[in-house]
Amino acid sequence: MNAILICFNGCSSEVEFPLKKDYLVLETLPYEALDKRGVTLNAKLVGEHTGNISEVGFIWGDVETSFKYPTILEKNAFSLRLESDLSNGKDYGYQAYVKIDSLLLLGNRLIFSSLGTIDPTIGDFYPKSGFVGDTVTIHGNYFSLNRERIEVTLNDYVCQIVSADVKHISVIVPYNIVYHSGQLPLKVQSGNTQIMAKESFLIEGFQITEVNPDHGIVGETLIDISGITIETMPNSIEVYFGNHKAEEVTRIGNTIRARLPYQMSSGSYQVSVKLDSTQVISNSTIEVLSRWQKINDFPSDGRVLGNLIPVGNVAYYLFGSTSLNSDIYFNEIWRYSFDSDEWALQGNFPGQARGGAITFNINGIIYYGLGVTGANGFFNDFWKYNPAVNQWTRLKNFTGPPKVKSQFLSMSGNGYVIGSSYYDGGIKEIWRYDPALDQWDMLGEIGIANGINNQDATFTYKGEIYVVDISNPKSRPVKVFKFSPGTPSIFEEIATLPFGPPAIQTMPIVFVLNNKLYLENTSRFQTKTGWQTETQMFTLNLESIEWARIENFPEALSAYQNSFSYNNYGYVGFISPTGADVTKKIWRYDATIQ
User: Fold this and answer.
1) Residue 390 to residues 346, 366, 393, 394, Cα–Cα distance (Å)
2) Are 531 and 524 in contact (CB under 8 A)?
3) For 501-533, b where at least 16 C-beta lie within 10 A, e where not — what string?
4) In contact, 481 and 472? CB cutoff 8 Å
5) Would you state the pLDDT for residue 481?
6) Is the distance from CB of 67 to CB of 59 less than 8 angstroms?
7) 578 or 543: which carries more pLDDT confidence?
8) Are residues 110 and 128 in the same domain?
9) What is the arithmetic mean of pLDDT over 354-378?
10) Which range of residues forms the domain containing residue 373?
């Protein structure tokens, strides 16, 4: 028996096969209206069906991606106009689909070569302002028909899309920008094109409305930040001036008050408030002033362990070494002019340069001596230098025990040497030098158990000598004492330092301007995670005995430096941050800057 198989094309038209079909056929038809605006895709249903058609549309795309766009069925036919997402000269495949009951029926696949589409545009959006959770509708043209290819952002925060077609996109203002300030840029990413609205969207949540004052001093000025909904904010508020975090922040009603940080440089800074992960930035800036001013660098080799002392309207730097670890010392004398901010080489010392020496100025004459070198041991020689004629004169030797890194100062026509870092060198002794008699006298001992050395601080005020015992960790909390040269054994405690926990200190910065002591100390202390450092600078009003914290010295941890005051300015220079390296920087502190 012979069998004959007759094949019919299920995608053919009824005209060719006028047989009545009792099944459904989906036919993808050739495209139409292909131009630079887009293309129209067509399809039709042929045959009988009793199922429920829930969705019709087209699946289209290139070799890398595909998209599924639904459309509307009318009289067993449907079409889709693509006017977005197409690239010029690119081939795209497409095929119709129908969802009927639980089945997905696919038509045949065809191809078109695109001439591209017009880039999407934003015409406008409404409303122009609102709060989180509000709906914003964007009006425009040629938006992608595929929601997955649309992204709307407010200041880079992604919005939830409610609905979208080629001319409209509706989104919800995201909740995670509840505390963001004011005007936010609105962007739409449609396919491969990003467009920005001409206007910004105004968030009616927290906004910074005012920053007052608009200028201030590092570490001193309190800045008031006013705004909307501040009173409803969480307690965890952080305030930043640029990248510098304020250490003191309080909230009073609709105002946040923050102190300018203690470690900043002069310049303009944008003010921002951080709430959780959101940072609200003010549109205005604040001009920050520092009382520290960098003046001309030292022009020769960097050095440390020398002596820097003012005489009249100039200062002299004597000798020094290339590092704290070196035993090679310069014997040069350099002169600095306060008026011209210039350095000049003055001459050389005829004796042996050394470290740990003492020096003081009495009536325009510089006195220098004592100290130590590794090669020569301790020195007891003493000299005077007349800078007016550049002349050195040898004086009588010091008659006491060796003195290394002692505290030294001058007052009322006499010089004083207090303590020593050499244990057998009279660590508690107070010696006075009388230049008229070229004579040394031991006045007594200070009432501090472990004595003092150059890591402590001494200064004079109204005919009395003040001592700050910073280096002795056993004497915590650190005290400020004073005594009169006539009664050196009577120590009067006048204040307790506001520095932090017990620590190993570096050499402090100390100078006096008017009635205030300026004191900075860098503490190094051990924690569970390792060694930590903390630097703080304070003033002590010597009349009211009140401490006030001010801005830090601009340089980092310092193992050694020279500091003094002249003509209502404080000076710090010849800094050794670690002891092994030195800098040439010189800084001036101007308390009159407002």
Assistant:
1) 7, 11, 10, 14
2) yes
3) eebebbbbbbbbbeebbbbbbbbeeeeeeeeee
4) no
5) 87
6) yes
7) 543
8) no
9) 91
10) 357-453
Q: In this structure, is residue 517 part of a structural domain?
A: no
* Euclidean distance between CA atoms 498 and 539, whole angstroms: 10
pLDDT at 472 over 80: no
- Provide CB contacts within 8 A for 244, sequence distance 6+: 261, 263, 264, 269
Confidence of residue 278 (pLDDT cuts 50, 70, 90): low
Residue among 212, 184, 185, 207 nearest 196 (CA): 185
Residue 542 included in any domain: no
CATH code of the domain containing 69 = 2.60.40.10
Count up the domains in the chain and report the number.
4
Q: How many CB atoms lie within 10 A of CB 496?
A: 13
Q: Is residue 570 part of a domain?
A: no
Confidence at residue 476, expressed as pLDDT on a 0 to 100 scale: 63
Q: Categorize the per-residue pLDDT at 255 as very low, low, confident or very high, splitting at 50, 70 and 90.
A: confident
Decide if 310 is inside a domain.
Answer: no
Q: Which amino acid is at 463?
A: G
Strands 193-203 and 129-130: parallel
How many other C-beta atoms are found inside a 10 Å radius of the C-beta of residue 294? 12
Provide CB contacts within 8 A for 554, sequence distance 6+.
Answer: 265, 290, 292, 294, 587
Mean of the per-residue pLDDT values for the chain?
Answer: 85
Last residue of some domain: 153, 183, 203? Answer: 203
Strand-pairing partners, residue 244, are: 241
- Domain boundary, last residue among 289, 315, 349: 289
Write the DSSP string, 12-54: S-TTT--SPPSSEEEEEEEEEEEETTEEEEEEEEEE---S-EE
Q: Please indicate, yes or no, whether residues 447 and 387 belong to a single structural domain of this protein.
A: yes
Among 190, 37, 187, 52, which residue's Cα sits nearest to residue 125?
187
- 22 vs 107: CA distance, rounded Å: 18
Residue 203 has pLDDT above 60, yes or no: yes
Q: Rounded CA gap, 341 and 364, in Å?
A: 20
Query: 423 vs 380, 403, 404, CA distance in Å?
Result: 16, 9, 9
* Both tokens assigned to 2: 């012979």
pLDDT tens-digit map of 15-58 = 444 445 567 899 999 999 999 989 999 999 998 877 889 999 99
- 31 and 82 together in one domain: yes
Other C-beta atoms closer than 10 Å to the C-beta of 551 total 22
Measured in residues, the chain has a length of: 594
**pLDDT surpassing 70 at residue 453:** yes
Note whether 361 and 425 are same-domain residues: yes
- Give 71's strand partners: 56
Q: Which pLDDT score is estimated for 63? A: 82
